[in-house]
Amino acid sequence: MAIISAGHAPRTRLAFLPVSDAVRLMCLAAAWTGVPSLVGQLRNADVVAARSVLGEDAFAFAFDAALLPRPTAGLMSAIGASKLPTGPAELLHCAAAMFGLAMGCIPHALQVRLRLRSPASIWTVAANACRNDSAGEDAFHAMRRLVRKRMAPWSHWFD
User: Fold this and answer.
1) Which of 7, 19, 117, 146 could form a disulfide with 123 if both were Cys (CB 3.0 to 4.6 A apart)?
2) What CA–CA distance (Å, rounded) separates 82 from 65?
C-alpha cells in the first residue's frame, strides 16, 4: 500500500520509471554535472571510456549541458561532486546520488526494489541517497529540467 501511495507524489514517481529511462536520465545528469571534465576529455584518450560508460547520447548532451545553468553548490556537495569528479564512473555515481535525492524519502520496500535493479552499484547509490534533504528539491528540479530538455514524452509525470 505504501508503494502505491508513493506514486502520487511527483518526486517519488522517479522510482517508477523504467530502468532504461532512469539510467538514461542518470547518464544525462552525469554529463551535466561533469561538463567541464567531459569537454576536457575530448583532448585525450579518455573520451572512449567516457562514451562507453555514459553512452553516446549523454556524451553528446554534454555540449548542450554546457549552456544550462550549473547545479547549485549545495547540490554538488550533496551528491559528492564538490570536487569535480573526472572519471565517467564517478560522474555516474554522483548522478545516481542526485537521482536518489530527487526521489526524497521513499518507502523502505521501494528502496529494496531499487537495489535489485542492475547495475547494482548505481542503484545502491541511488537507493542510499533517498532521503529528505535540503538539496532534494534542487535535485528534483535539476532532474525535471533534464527530463524536459531530453526526455519529453513522459515529463508530464513531474507535474
Assistant:
1) 117
2) 18
